[in-house]
Amino acid sequence: MKERDEVRSVPDYSPVPLTLEGSSLLHQFFRFDWKAWRATPPADRDRIAAEAVAALTTLERKSPGAPAQTALFSQIGHKGDLILIHFRDSFAALNQVELDLAQTELANYLTASHSYVSVVELGLYESSRKTWEAASAKGLEPHTPEFQAEVAASLQRASAAMAPRLFPAIPDAKYLTFYPMDRKRGETANWYTVPFADRQRMMHEHGLIGRRYGDQVKQIISGSIGMDDWEWGVDLFADDPVVFKKLIYEMRFDEVSAVYALFGQFFLGIRLPIEKLASWLDGKL
Predict the structure, then answer these.
(1) Of all helices (H) and strands (E), which one includes residue 32?
(2) Cross-strand bridge partners of residue 84
């Protein structure tokens, strides 16, 4: 009876883990109209390429030497030709990027094949309960305004401490793979009905695999619930694309992926320095 009473006395905080949000992200995927480009007079091609390089260079960094906030990739495979990734401080800034690019003449040769909108997200499965329990230890009732204010203050401190991860530069790596993903909500496997403690354990085990590849792969997770068609977007950056296969393959054997994960399309690209765009338009990397 005593043990049952102790279990009942544990506060019911929330099934939703706390999260921290940072940079707003836009992925743009384009097909390039090579036929129209080849039909364009050489002098016009040179002018259009120079204008595009100037525009993208302005978008790439806030100032010379500043961290990269826009990056260009030559896409590999039939899904498209170019990938642009933009990290900004707001969604309004992302929309302005779209508008700026639409004003260039090069936009006349680009057709959007896909896009993805999200926000850098750090899930706090490891520390959510500690944060809630610390607020309760101060005598605050869960779900009250005072409790929520205490949690918000804790998140603000964590956000300041983790600013480099929340507002990252685009990694200077040769290869990119991007894919969206969901957690299953089916009749037999539903992530959102699994008890918090079990989800916390699975996410901890999942994270251990990623950490083992930390010296080879830079991973940026972004949340997109309510923003795009999937729940999360995953960017992996590395100098060796084979490591993408090894990392993702190993992760599929852990419980959270094997039972509860759904994956969208994968998009693979090779970094295209903006100053080399003119060469790419001539058919050379």
Answers:
(1) strand 19-32
(2) 28, 72
C-alpha–C-alpha distance, residues 130 and 137, integer Å = 10
- Answer yes or no: 179 catalytic: yes
Active-site choice (179, 192, 249, 260): 179
The helix/strand/coil state of 245 is helix
Residues 6 or more apart whose CB falls under 8 angstroms from that of 223 comprise: 19, 21, 118, 119, 120, 121, 231, 232
pLDDT in tens, 33-74: 999 999 999 999 999 999 999 999 999 999 988 999 999 999
Spatial contact of 100 and 127, defined as CB atoms under 8 Å apart: no
Nearest Cα neighbor of 84 from 271, 240, 222 is 271
What single string gives the DSSP state of each residue in 90-154? SHHHHHHHHHHHHTSGGGGGEEEEEEEEEEEEEE-TTTHHHHHHHHHHTTPPTTSHHHHHHHHHH
- pTM (2 decimals)? 0.93
* Pair 194, 258: CB distance under 8 Å: no
Beta carbons of 129 and 13 less than 8 angstroms apart = yes
Encode 206-224: b = buried (16+ Cβ within 10 Å), e = exposed: bbebeeebeebbbebbbbb
Amino acid at 251: M
pLDDT, position 11: 56
Give alpha helix (H) positions in 10-90: 34-38, 42-60
